Amino acid sequence: MPSSPSSTTSPSSTTSPSSTTSPSSTNPAPTSTPAARREPSGKGPSGAAARLFLPLIALCTAVTAANIYLAAPLLPLIAHDMGSTPSAVAWLASVAQLGYAAGLLFFAPLGDSVNRRRLVAVLSLVATAALLAAAASAGTGALAGAVLVASAATVVPQLLVPLVAERAPADRRARHVAAVIAGLFTGVVAARVLGGLAGEAFGWRAVFVGAAVLTAVLGLATAYILPVERRQRRGPLFAGLVAIPGLVRRSPDLWRACVRQAGMYGAWSALWTSLALLLTEDEGYGMTTAAAGLFGLFGLAASVVAPLAGGLVDRFGAAKVVRSAYGLAALSVPLFWLGGQVMAALCAAAVLVHAALVASHVANQTLALTTTSAPATANTAYVVAGFAGGALASALAGPAFGHWGWGGVCAVAGAWLVLGWTATAVRRVR
User: Fold this and answer.
1) Who contacts 113 (Cβ-Cβ below 8 Å, separation ≥6)?
2) Which end of the chain is more exposed for a tag (fewer CB within 10 A), N or C?
3) Alpha helices in 168-296 (DSSP H)
4) Which region among 96-105, 115-124, 259-268 has the lowest average model confidence (pLDDT)?
C-alpha cells in the first residue's frame, strides 16, 4: 500500500496553536473552504479542568457510544415485556444504526461551523430526553422512535475527536485520538455485556434510565470544560454535508483513509455480526445466548491496543500502521475459518481482528482529521464510509452463512480486505 507524505509526517492543517510548529505536509494546500470562519478561541480549560479534559472526553465518548448498542442485548427482555418474540423486535437494533447514520450526516459536520460547546450540550440533552422516552414507551413503535432520536443525537464522539486532534501537541496527536477511540470501543463492549447483565437484574427500562442519567451528567460536564469558540458561520447551516463529496475528491489522503477503513470495518462486521450464529447454532457450538454474549469481551482487546496504536502512528506514520493492521486482519480470516471447528483458533482470531480494527481506525482517523482544513466534515466522510462498508458486508454475511455456512462469512470478510487494499493501492498522491 503506497505511503503518502502526510501519513509519515505530522500534519499541519489544524487550528490548534501547537500544530503550527509541526512539520508541514508535502501535500498541496487543501482547497476546501470551511463553512465558518474561525475566530481566535477564548481560553480553554485550566487547572483541574485541563487535566480532566482528555479523560472526561474519553469517558463521555464511552457512554454516548454505548447508547447506539443499548437495545441489542435487551431485545429478549423487550420482547417478553411487550408480548412478542426476540426475532419480531430485532429490527430495533437496525433502527439505532439508522439513527446514528443520520446523525453523522446532519450533525457531525456542524463541528466546523457552530460552537461545539453548545452543540454537545444540546445533543446530550436531546439524547437524554429520548432515552427517558424509550424507557417509558408502551409499544415497539414508540420505542423505535425514541431509539432513532437517541442514536441520531449520539454523534457527540465524532464532534469531540476533531477537537482533541486540534488541541493535541503534534508529536502526540495520534495518542490523544487513540485515547478517545479506546473510550468508544469500551462503551460498545459495555453496552453489549454490562447492558445485558443490568437488564437481567433490573429490567430493560432501568437500563435506559441509567443511560439517560449518565448521558446528561457526562455530556453537560464535557460541554462545560470544552474551550470557548467564537465562530462566524458563513453559508447554509448544512454546507458541510454538501461539501463532503468534493472534499473527498480533492484529498487523496482522505479518500484513502475512507476506503481503507471501509474495507477493514466491513471485514470485522461480517465476522462479528455473524459470530453469534456460529456460537449458538446446533451445527456450530450450541452455546446459550448469554454465553455467546460474553464472547463480546474479546472486544476489550481494541481498548487495550488503541493507546499502543496511537504511539506507533506518531512514531512511524499512519501508512505503516494501516499496512500492519491489514496484515493482522488477513491472518485472522483463516483463523476464523479454522475457528469453525477449533475454539482456541476462534478466540485467537477474535483478539487479532479487534487489534487490527482499532489500529487501522486510529491511523486512518488521525489522517482524516489532519489532511484538510475542515476536520469535522472530513471526519464525517470517514466515519460514514466505514459505517457503509460495515453495513454492506454485514448484509452479505447473513445470506453467505445461510448458503455456505461459516466458510461463506469468512470469504466475505476476506473479499472486503482485498477490496480495501487494492482500491487504495491504485491511487497515488501526486
Assistant:
1) 34, 35, 36, 231, 233, 235, 237, 239, 240
2) C
3) 173-202, 204-225, 239-250, 252-280, 289-293
4) 96-105
Q: What is the DSSP string of 51-109?
A: HHHHHHHHHHHHHHHHHHTSSGGGHHHHHHHTT--HHHHTHHHHHHHHHHHHHHHHTGG
Query: For the chain, how many residues are written?
Result: 430
User: Could you give the C-alpha distances from 430 to 166, 194, 257, in angstroms and in order?
Assistant: 26, 48, 16
* 140-144, 226-230, 415-419: least confidently modelled range: 226-230
**pTM value?**
0.69
* Residue 224 vs residues 53, 64, 116, 127, 187: alpha-carbon distances, Å: 10, 16, 11, 17, 22
Q: What whole-number distance in Å separates Cα of residue 117 and Cα of residue 229?
A: 8
The SS3 call for residue 184 is helix
Q: How far is it, in rounded angstroms, from Cα 97 to Cα 4?
A: 33
Residue pLDDT, tens place only, 374-396: 887 888 889 888 878 887 887 78
